[in-house]
Design goal:
This protein is α+β, with helices and mostly antiparallel strands. 63% of the residues lie in helices and 13% in strands. The termini are far apart.
């Protein structure tokens, strides 16, 4: 049996169970054959994380399509929405929240500005600086999209009970802390 997801067209597509696992295991087996002198076990974890990210983003992008958003632009709008009224942040604050470069943020802001979801406003205390603020239409779009994204995220997590979700979150947080410590020292 497989899982079903409903993409933009409303047609259900069948995803074989264990497809990500099978793909990653094939890569591990290839490394075991080609380089038996190196233990490829980390590929299993990093490969699954990568596949999960890619597949989950595709599912979220499908949900966001009616709002003309993708995961990256959605993340900008949610950062603004989470900031509370008047739903405004500086570009620097946004880059920190989203772990983006200025160029990466600018591209997203340009798309959102074309959709009339955000406005670039002068900073009241410093006219040389900007504030990025949700517009009324941007607030409406993000308020409508958030429940749909949470719904698909819950569906994707449905194979895990509360205890397993908590254990996964704890292990991922510990893993993230290890990577943060490694990248900050070296």
């Amino acid at each position: 049996m497989g899982n079903e997801t409903e993409p933009r067209g409303g047609r259900k597509r069948r995803i074989p169970e264990n497809a990500a696992r099978a793909h990653v295991e094939k890569i591990v087996a290839q490394w075991q054959t080609e380089r038996p002198d190196i233990n490829p076990d980390p590929v299993r974890i990093y490969g699954l994380i990568g596949r999960i990210q890619t597949q989950a983003t595709a599912c979220i992008d499908d949900v966001l399509a009616p709002y003309k958003l993708v995961r990256g632009t959605f993340d900008v709008l949610t950062a603004l929405r989470r900031a509370g009224a008047p739903y405004s942040l500086s570009p620097k604050e946004l880059t920190q929240f989203l772990l983006l470069s200025g160029a990466g943020l600018n591209s997203r802001l340009n798309k959102l500005e074309r959709l009339h979801y955000i406005a670039r406003l002068p900073e009241p205390s410093d006219r040389r600086s900007l504030r990025i603020q949700l517009t009324v239409s941007g607030e409406g779009a993000i308020n409508a999209a958030i429940p749909r994204v949470f719904e698909i995220q819950w569906q994707l997590l449905s194979a895990l009970d509360s205890e397993n979700r908590n254990a996964l979150a704890e292990n991922l947080a510990r893993f993230a802390d290890t990577i943060d410590a490694h990248t900050s020292t070296g």
